[in-house]
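Before relying on records like the one below, remember that each one covers exactly one chain. Contacts with other chains, cofactors or solvent are not represented anywhere in the record.
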Amino acid sequence: MRAFICLCTVLIFSCSSQQSDEWTGPQLIQKSIQFHDPAGNWAEFKGTLEIEDSLPADRPSRKYAVSFDNELSKVIYRKDDLHFIIWNDSVQVFEGEIAHDRAIMLRNYYSYLWGLPMKLQDPNTIIEKEIKTEVLNGVYYWVVRVPYEKDVWYFYLDKESFEMKAYKFYQDEAAQKGEIIYLDGLLEVSDMKIPKERTWYRTEKDEFLGTDILMKASEGA
């Protein structure tokens, strides 16, 4: 009987290992999207994220709100005395001043980072098939590599739930120059699970850059 139990244990472990070896990068990203956005609501999400920055001691923290209407490709940004709207690539400033290119950059920044991992479904995104396992703060994660034209991204997924737990990007991969962002907690809105806190560090040296805290998320622009 004992030998039979041991044999079953070996077989179960072998099957599990084989299943793990068969994962590809695109499959893992789809699993992560199913965790964060099971109903596929990001593409038509209309709502507001209220965010607060916790920055290094020598810099003041900031509060701002970003409203999305993804169906219409519209983003509204509000912070202190700055208020503008981007609709496709048109920018209208209601309060304060901002250059057109800077407004577009902010739109792309917030849409991408707060829309992960769903934004990895965007056209022309290359998700490499080969995956690896890496230890981060003592925990093993699946790691998926996504190269872009100007930088390379790595996404760290929980090995059981496929929740996205961290990501990093290299502006210069050979020199390991870039940033790593640790994710903590989840806030639910429109049946999506959005990471609540994102803490940023440099990759080439141990330097804290700041923490973005999602204070509130609500549906409707």
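The longest helix spans residues 2-21.
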